[in-house]
Amino acid sequence: MKNLSFFIARRYFLSKKKKGFINVLSIIAMVGVAIGTAALVIVLSVFNGLEDLIRSLYSSFDADIKISLNEGKFFEYDDELQKAIEESEGLATIVQVVEDNVLVRYNDGESVVRMKGVSPEFVKNSRLKNHITEGQLKLTEKEQNFAVVGQGIRYDLSINSRNDFLALQFYYPKNISPGRTNPSSMYNSGILMPAGVFAIEKQYDEKYIFVPIRFARKLIGKKNECTSIEINLDAGVSIDQVQESLQKDLGDEFEVLNSDEQHASLLKAIKIEKLFIYLTFSFILAVASFNIFFALTMLALDKKRDISILYAMGTPIKTIRNVFLKEGAIISLSGALTGGLFGFIICLLQQEYGLISMNMASAVQEAYPVKMIASDFIFTMLTISVITILASFKPAQVAAKSVEIQRL
To answer: What is the pLDDT of residues 220-277, one digit of tens each?
Structure first.
């Protein structure tokens, strides 16, 4: 029989005549592999969901592509630079940005915040519209300027966007030289009425205030300079192609980053955590495979008589060794498929119904996000296959060795 080793292994696995202890060990081994597989699939899917959630939060605040200097802070947005950028295809909006720290006062409160001055194109195609919790996304109206503040700053300074009598006061230090005695000559100042409040995520809500770029330039003392250029692309346009084209046109003086590269350190940290989680659970699966080792060893000792009969009938030692290798494969594969299916069902229920909550008042999403990726299932199965081979190899050698002793 061509698949004799698999046939015998399957019979051993399904046989009701096996010794009770060996049967219990096999079941424990299978359950251990199933639990480890399900846990690994679920945890990896949660990390995938968190990574997607972070990307979606960033996409609400950051542009598809950001252009800034490799060295230095301010650069002039002249006609030559504008032409070089606009020659690229698929650009939906080009937003000039002036960004720096400023002191803001409102009523009796004050705080150092990150002021982000943006050109009018920002409002036209801004994803921030979906995160306005109070007032509206408005930076200019006729000749009047307005500010849109983060929700954390709003709570910190007790800002009321409906109060037309209290304005935000902005202060930015000048180049201070020795001998100045008048405090008012050491800083630039300006006032804006708050038009709206946005809420995305804590690190943005407690840090940023959006203002018109003409106000930001006047406050900082710049004319046509920018700290960065933010570009949003049309739907379906390849970000990588546009990024490569812009980097080639602008040269090494400028740094052109896509949305992921703007937060490379955080996304890299998530990937490293995911890798360590994978390694940790792989170790747990390896520990669970000791049950496979013990079950196969006991089975090899228990089936010495069967092994002798098979050998006497002319069965090759290689086939006898394969019986136990495939027995281990059947145990682990049964556990892996059961655990994989269970993990898939749990993740599917979490996606649809949000069974497990984050239990965080400041969480941007109530339930843990999950995202299943085929590669996670594939790597999990490959890991289990390697562990199974290693765990089954010694018992298979024990069976083959008993045959060799009989032959001598």
So the answer is: 999 889 999 999 998 888 999 999 999 999 999 999 999 888 888 888 888 888 889 8
Angle between the 264-302 and 20-61 helix axes, to the nearest 10 degrees? Answer: 170
pTM (two decimals): 0.74
Considering the domain architecture, whether residues 169 and 188 belong to the same structural domain is answered as yes
- Is residue 111 domain-shared with residue 164, that is, in the same domain? yes
Burial 233-258 (b: 16+ CB within 10 A, else e): beeeeeeeebbebbbeebeeebebbb
Decide if 372 contacts 73 (C-beta within 8 A).
no
> Residue 64 in contact with residue 237, Cβ under 8 Å?
no
Please say which residue of 232, 258, 284 terminates a domain.
258
Q: What residue type is 127 in one-letter code?
A: R
Question: Would you state the structure tokens that stand for residue 310, as one six-digit string?
Answer: 């098979």
Same domain, 329 and 195: no
H/E stretch holding 403: helix 374-407
Reported as a single tens digit per residue, the pLDDT across 135-155 is 999 999 888 999 999 999 999
Q: Which residues of 301-311 are buried (b: 16+ CB within 10 A; e: fewer)?
A: eebeeebeebb
